[in-house]
Design brief:
Length: 107
């Protein structure tokens, strides 16, 4: 499955569960676009690839328990910010390292 620009939780709540296969956003994935939005990604298997992950005016969470997250480009500062805010969480193994060439594996 793929999309150009993906908003999860634009003005309400949305959840993307990935247990296998792949999901590709050619551009950004933005969680919680508006202040009333909440977007959640649960990556348990397969691959999630995006230009970058962003947090909008609302709230969001990315749970990585398996699979692989690939962000294209240099997103080190954005990823570090999401980790510090508790938005990007690796529940098994070490936390994602934003300096590891933008690829993270869950388990």
């Amino acid at each position: 499955m793929s999309g150009k620009l993906v908003y999860l939780g634009r003005a309400g709540s949305a959840r993307l569960n990935i247990n296998g296969g792949s999901f590709t956003a050619d551009d950004n994935i933005e969680l919680g676009k508006n202040d009333t939005g909440y977007g959640e990604i649960n990556l348990a298997g397969g691959t999630l690839q995006a230009g970058t992950l962003k947090l909008g005016a609302g709230a969001g969470l990315v749970n990585i328990t398996g699979g692989t997250l690939i962000l294209v480009g240099d997103d080190t500062a954005d990823v570090q910010s999401l980790i510090e805010l508790g938005v990007l969480v690796a529940k098994t193994g070490p936390a994602p390292n934003p300096k590891s060439r933008n690829t993270w594996a869950g388990s």
